[in-house]
Amino acid sequence: MQASASAAIDNLELKADINISSITDASDEELIEQSKQGNHSAFRVIVERYEPVVAATVIGMLGSSAEVDDVGQETFVRLYKSLNKFRGDAKLSTYLTRIAINLSLDALRRQQRNRLKFWAPREEDSLPDELTIDSSGDIDANERREIVRRAVQMLDPKHRVVVVLRMLQGYSTKETAALLKIPAGTVLSRLSRAEDKLKNLLEPLIEDL
């Protein structure tokens, strides 16, 4: 009896391992369908699979803002609430990126409104003093990344979002245009202006980058 019970437990554990493995290896479409049926493990796999994509998008848009975590979490909350509306017309990564971008733009608008309550906005033409290169010209890889990241944050939202999608996330011009619902020509013109601004900001680093 004891041996039989032990064998049964081992069999259940084996089945559980197989189920977990099958969920982990499931396609996005399968995970979506399972999630629609209330399978929380399936949705957890979606979160784990696409958390890096969402994080890269939100951090690219908001930098070190205190709202980064909230926007990242809200992105997956919005996905969960809209599961029944998801038809698979776009890849899940694209769908999540669109949600993350829209929420990030909302956050930037809130930040802008809050800033306007206390001081007038001004155009930034140079990096903050604490992020410029010292007289020795020595700068390590981490410092370079931080300076580039801060430079991107100095772009206005409509140019920043194009840089994040095209240059950081690797979307094509056509894909970026579809995500933002703007003409491809507008994507190209905004990207060109963003590149000019970044070049001016990063001019002292060009030889080191």
TrEMBL record:
Its protein name is RNA polymerase subunit sigma-24
Species classification: Bacteria, Pseudomonadati, Bacteria division LCP-89
The family classification in the record reads:
Belongs to the sigma-70 factor family. ECF subfamily.
Domain (RNA polymerase sigma-70 region): residue spans on this chain:
46-113
**Which GO biological process entries does UniProt record here?**
DNA-templated transcription initiation
Single GO molecular function? sigma factor activity
Q: Do you know which Gene3D superfamilies this protein is assigned to? A: 1.10.1740.10, Winged helix-like DNA-binding domain superfamily/Winged helix DNA-binding domain
Q: Which terms are listed as keywords in the entry?
A: Sigma factor, Transcription, Transcription regulation
Q: Where is the RNA polymerase sigma factor 70 region 4 type domain?
A: 146-198
Which organism does this record belong to?
candidate division LCP-89 bacterium B3_LCP
